[in-house]
């Protein structure tokens, strides 16, 4: 550290490495880290971007193209058009811009955003927060002083460009630690913090239908759940739902109610709901094997997540974990032994087969 200080002192007032040539000095580092759409801007300016490389349908920047730009205008500023599956939330909080207050308001409503990678030329909370998001969605701006940046809309001027308005350089910052990140240490787009599902629902405007939005958000939410262990409440709900499916009433209704109960339990922190949903799906498909089900189960689960969850699942519940888990071969109608055996081939981890021995749950009758 002392060494660095000495170096800085010795170099002053000459500019630091790369500052005279933001584009030429940085494009390779960005491309190597997976941020491949590096756009050339005029020296010390934020606009205009090169024609044909921005917006939906904009061309991807090839390495060859970037090299040509670096030769033609090495001192140009550099900007990024985010790759697919990445969303920037751009907070302007300076002068009369009140993006910080807007962000706070939304965080009170939707829950806090995870701390993530930020690109900025000003003090936080100003800056672009970067998140991983499902691909295939459209996005809307958050509100006063907070805009979104994605593959199809806008671009982000980034380090080591010069911001002519703040008269400072852009930099990458770890929001949690406040530390500046060198370009060589920049996270890859695929390693970014994921935007929480409630935020996805609030900010996405469907490129497809609401069902598409629910499906993307739903799968992201399910990804937060653990498979194992299955707790007592999850077990009981699964048994009840499977029994209801065998009961001769509406199978669709039984599946709808059962999956919604499981999703609500998962939100409350009850464990093993992913395994439970697989068991329920098998039971439903078995019960409804006389007709096509056409994704009914997935739609029900995604719909339940859209309706009944309001943030990541609670950390965990305190119910006991049953010593022995119910197995899927017991659940559907056992008269169809071949179907049960077939399903056993892709049984979830931890759910043991019971071809020879019945292993009832404690609560089982
Ligand atoms: Zn529980």
Automatic annotation (TrEMBL):
Domain of life of the organism encoding this protein: Bacteria
Task: Give the Basic and acidic residues compositional bias ranges.
Answer: 327-339, 356-365
Please list the coiled coil stretches: none
Domain DNA primase/polymerase bifunctional N-terminal: from-to ranges: 27-192
The region called Disordered is annotated at 1-23, 39-58, 316-365
InterPro entries membership: DNA_primase/pol_bifunc_N (IPR015330)
Q: Using the record, list the residue span of the signal peptide; answer none if the entry has no such feature.
A: none
* Basic residues bias: start-end ranges: 7-20, 340-350
Which named protein is this? Bifunctional DNA primase/polymerase
Species in which this protein is naturally found: Egibacter rhizosphaerae
């Amino acid at each position: 550290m002392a060494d660095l200080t000495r170096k800085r002192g010795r170099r002053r007032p000459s500019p630091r490495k790369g500052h005279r040539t933001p584009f030429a000095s940085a494009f390779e580092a960005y491309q190597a880290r997976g941020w491949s759409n590096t756009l050339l801007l005029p020296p010390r300016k934020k606009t205009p971007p090169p024609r044909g490389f921005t917006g939906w349908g904009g061309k991807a920047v090839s390495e060859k193209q970037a090299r040509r730009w670096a030769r033609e205008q090495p001192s140009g500023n550099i900007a990024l058009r985010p790759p697919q599956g990445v969303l920037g939330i751009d907070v302007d909080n300076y002068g009369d811009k009140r993006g910080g207050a807007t962000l706070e308001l939304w965080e009170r409503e939707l829950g806090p955003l995870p701390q993530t990678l930020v690109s900025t030329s000003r003090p936080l909370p100003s800056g672009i927060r970067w998140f991983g998001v499902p691909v295939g969605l459209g996005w809307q701006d958050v509100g006063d002083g907070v805009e979104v940046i994605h593959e199809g809309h806008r671009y982000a001027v980034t380090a080591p460009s010069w911001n002519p308005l703040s008269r400072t350089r852009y930099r990458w910052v770890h929001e949690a630690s406040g530390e500046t990140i060198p370009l060589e240490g920049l996270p890859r787009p695929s390693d970014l913090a994921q935007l929480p599902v409630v935020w996805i629902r609030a900010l996405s405007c469907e490129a497809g239908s609401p069902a598409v939005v629910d499906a993307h958000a739903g799968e992201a939410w399910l990804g937060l759940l653990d498979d194992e262990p299955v707790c007592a409440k999850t077990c009981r709900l699964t048994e009840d739902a499977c029994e209801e499916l065998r009961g001769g009433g509406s199978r669709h209704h039984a599946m709808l109610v059962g999956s919604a109960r499981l999703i609500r339990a998962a939100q409350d922190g009850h464990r093993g709901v992913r395994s439970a949903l697989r068991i329920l799906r098998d039971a439903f498909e078995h019960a409804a094997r006389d007709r096509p089900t056409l994704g009914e189960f997935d739609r029900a689960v995604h719909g339940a997540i859209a309706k009944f969850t309001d943030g990541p699942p609670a950390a965990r519940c305190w119910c006991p974990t049953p010593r022995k888990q119910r197995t899927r071969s017991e659940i559907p109608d056992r008269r169809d032994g071949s179907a049960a055996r077939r399903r056993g081939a892709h049984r979830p981890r931890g759910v043991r087969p019971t071809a020879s021995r019945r292993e009832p749950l404690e609560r089982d009758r």
